[in-house]
Amino acid sequence: MTKNILVVGPDGFLAREVLTQLSAGERSRIILLGRKEMTGRDNYFSDVVTLKKAVPEVDVVYLLGAYIPYGAFQSGDAALVKTNIELVADLSLSYPESRIVFSSSVSVYGSPLQLPIAVDSPFNNPDLYGMSKLAGEAIVRNHKHFAILRFSSILGQGMNNLTMIPRMIAAAKAGTIVVWGDGGRLQNYIDVRDAARLCLLAAQSDKNIVALGVGAKSYSNAEIAGQIGLLTHATVEFSGTDKSPSFVYQVEESYRSLNFAPLYSIEQTLNDLIKP
After folding, report:
1. Domain locations along the chain
2. In CATH, what is the architecture of 3-157+189-216+247-262?
3. SUPFAM superfamilies annotated for this entry (predicted)?
4. pTM
C-alpha cells in the first residue's frame, strides 16, 4: 500500500537529503509543505489548511523545517514561535494518527552542566532558539506516534556557509586558518547523509523515541582545522581566547534505539566539502 509521506521544509539542508533517500527507497506519495507559493505542482503546499483539505490523511510527517536565527540566537523573533512552535502544533492536530519525525537540536541543552551529555541530561539556560525547539518537542511528545531527534552540527554539501567549518574551508583556500583560543573546544558533527538515514530509521520504528542525532565522537577545533589544513595545504594559526563550552555526547543508547551507526567519518565529510 502506498504511503502518504509529508516533508515539511523541503528546501532545507537536511530535508533535501531526506527526499533524496526517500526517492531511492520505498514507494510512496511524497507531499511537500514549504514557504514558497507554487503553482502547477499538486504535491506542494504552502499552508496547513489547504494541505489538509487536499490530503486528509498522512502516514508520516518529517517535520524538518525550522527557523534558525543564525548570529542572533537570543533574538525574540516572532518566526521562532510561528515556525518552531505553532506550525508543529498545527500539524500534530491536523494529522493525529501520523508518525511525526521531529528534527530538534542539541541547543535544547544550553550550557552543559556535565559531560558527556545523555538524552536525559538536564537543560541549562538554553537560548531562545533552544527554548523554541523544547516547546516544539513538548507538543510532539503529546502526539500519538513520534520520534524526536536532537541533532548536533550537520555537515555536507549545501550546508549553511555562515557556520564554522565552511568558514574554515574558505579561509584554508586563501592559505591560513585562524582558530580562536588554543583550539581545545570540543564540538560534534554528523554527516547529512547519516542524519537523513537516522530520520528514515526513526520513521520506520514503532516506538516513541527521543534520541541524539550526533556523530560518534566530538572533535576539537584544532583537530578540525588540522584536518582541513592537511586537505588544503593551509597553515593553522591560533588567536585570542575561546570561552565557549565543549559538547561531548553519550551516543550508545540513541544508536541502539534506532539500530544506527554512522557510515561517514569526519575525514570523509570534510574531504567531500573541500573537493566536491
Report:
1. 3-157+189-216+247-262
2. 3-Layer(aba) Sandwich (3.40)
3. NAD(P)-binding Rossmann-fold domains (SSF51735)
4. 0.94
Residue pointed to by grid coordinates 550550557:
111
